[in-house]
Write a structure and sequence with these properties.
- By secondary structure, the protein is mainly alpha-helical.
- The chain folds into 2 domains: 31 residues, no CATH class; 112 residues, Serine Threonine Protein Phosphatase 5, Tetratricopeptide repeat.
- 51% of the residues lie in helices and 0% in strands.
- It is built from 9 helices and no strands.
- α3 packs parallel to α5, α4 packs parallel to α6 and α5 runs parallel beside α7.
- The N and C termini lie far apart (57 Å).
């Protein structure tokens, strides 16, 4: 294998396992407390998944264990982005309470938590974010606006 593929990983990664370091979970045993051995990046992915699913208990556990909610997944989406897109107001409110943020940070696609909420028609999140001072950049939505007008899409 080393001759043909040349796979070589750092000793600490080999010790923890590639499944933990690269995917953030054990490949074979779901019952293990994986968060004890996870890298900060993998833990952040777990936090993003919990926020996306609306699992407040898991979000609380991960935040309590020191996971930074500002660290994003592979697309740069944070737990804030995913909670906003899915309309998880209780998750978003909890995250904001633990770590208040400015809302101008973007994922690799240029989306902010507010634009995620707006794009997914999550009105409660939009209202929450606007009440905290977040603002949409109208130029980012002008083409969408005209497209909706042309289709007669009032909502």
């Amino acid at each position: 294998m080393k001759i043909t593929v040349r796979i070589d990983v750092e000793p600490d990664v080999e010790e923890k396992g590639l499944d933990i370091c690269q995917m953030g979970e054990h490949a074979y045993d779901d019952e293990l407390l994986a968060h004890l051995d996870l890298t900060p990046e993998a833990l952040s992915v777990k936090l993003c998944e919990a926020a996306d699913e609306g699992n407040l208990v898991r979000v609380h556990e991960l935040i309590k264990s020191g996971v930074d909610p500002m660290y994003g997944d592979y697309d740069g989406r944070t737990a804030y982005h995913l909670a906003a897109a899915e309309g998880r107001l209780e998750i978003f409110d909890y995250l904001y309470d633990k770590k208040p943020i400015s809302f101008d940070f973007k994922d690799k696609f240029g989306n902010t938590p507010l634009s995620e909420a707006f794009n997914h028609m999550q009105d409660r999140i939009v209202k929450f974010l606007v009440s905290k001072g977040a603002k949409l950049n109208a130029r980012d939505y002008i083409n969408d606006f005209f497209e909706c007008c042309a289709k007669g899409d009032i909502k």
